[in-house]
Write a structure and sequence with these properties.
85% of the residues lie in helices and 0% in strands. By secondary structure, the chain is mainly alpha-helical. The model has no long low-confidence stretch (mean pLDDT 88).
Amino acid sequence: MKRNSVLFGIVLGLFAPLLGILGYYFWKFYPTYSIGEFFSVIFSSKALLSGISTFALFANVALLTIYFNTRRDETGKGIFIISCIYAIAAIVFKLFI
């Protein structure tokens, strides 16, 4: 896979939010809840969705900034596409579910 391609950006954009969610778990929930309990709390509480989606999208924004500043625009486009999809999904989930 090329290092400056939209596909590579999509792959990075899919995995970076997972690291952001994992970071949120360790920051807020780690000593008290197991990872399984954390995910069940996420899906049962809409109030937590804002904080978690913020951390998830922040990971993509950090990657996006790095890739655009290093002039790897094709990868940045892929990250941006996935960031938009994540943001729309978070809004839909929060409003309708």
